[in-house]
Amino acid sequence: MLYIIIPVFNRLPYTRGCLNSLRQQSCRDFRIIVVDDGSTDGTAQALATEFPEVEVVTGNGSLFWTAGVNAGMRRALALGATSVMTMNNDVLALPDFIEQMLACAAQYPTAVLGALELDAATGEPVYGGEQLDWSTNTRHDLLAELPPTERHGLHPVTYLPGRGLLIPLAVIEAIGLFDEKRLPHYLADFDYTSVARRHGFPVFCNYDARLSTYPDESGQTQTRNKRSLRGYLQHLFGIRGGGNLRNFTHFSLKNCPMPFLPYFLLNGYVRRLGGYFLH
């Protein structure tokens, strides 16, 4: 059984939209666990009254993304999950999303699978995975490089985000849960999928499974749109900072091949220190 794990903190309208999109799936062979990390906007009451089929794991507001996902995974495993899927609450699953993901999982039972992401406002594709050249710290955007006629099926990637990320039980048994100690929020998903790939598990972006997302609503985007000294420090050192130097260092030490590590680190530090003001 597939268990979908959704960590939430407030933003009830997004959670409601996400859960309603899962109710409309053509394939209903899954269960949902919402990890409510101390929301104060009525999320708990709404889940109880509007979505009684959803199992709720409650946190005290200190979990952040990684520990929240891990709490949901532990509960799913205790309930007998054969695979889990991490999903952010600010996504909408297109009606055949689960069907397409499970079809690929049946064909590649040890593969970690992500989804093609569409802009919820326009319907245009915005993310389709990356292949990273560790030697130059250069990211190849598959969506930009693939012609429209090839935007279907499975495409191998270096890592995947946690939005609609399907993880087989075999992967969890081999590498454990997400690294909540060193990567409490950002980069935990890229780290986990990169570690899985290095352990021999295929990592694919499934272009036939689609999610609608809100690119402008991410914490990184909002911080960059309101540039300030406080925002800059948050970007580099805050637990939710997209350019957090400590997180990047941990990710690099765990995943970058040793011959490329010095340049990869130096290049990454420069990008994070200066990139906040360039985008």
Describe the structure.
- The chain is α/β, with parallel strands linked by helices.
- It has two domains: 2-216, Spore Coat Polysaccharide Biosynthesis Protein SpsA, Chain A; 221-275, no CATH class.
- 39% of the residues lie in helices and 23% in strands.
- The protein has eleven helices and twelve strands.
- The strands form three sheets. The protein has a five-stranded mixed β-sheet with strand order 3-2-1-4-11, sandwiched between helices. Strands 5, 6, 7, 10 and 12 form a five-stranded mixed β-sheet that branches. The protein has a two-stranded antiparallel ribbon with strand order 8-9.
- The longest helix has 15 residues, at 64-78.
- It is globular.
- The N and C termini lie far apart (42 Å).
- 39% of the residues are buried.
- The model has no long low-confidence stretch (mean pLDDT 93).
- It holds the Pfam family Glycos_transf_2.
- Keywords: Glycosyltransferase, Transferase.
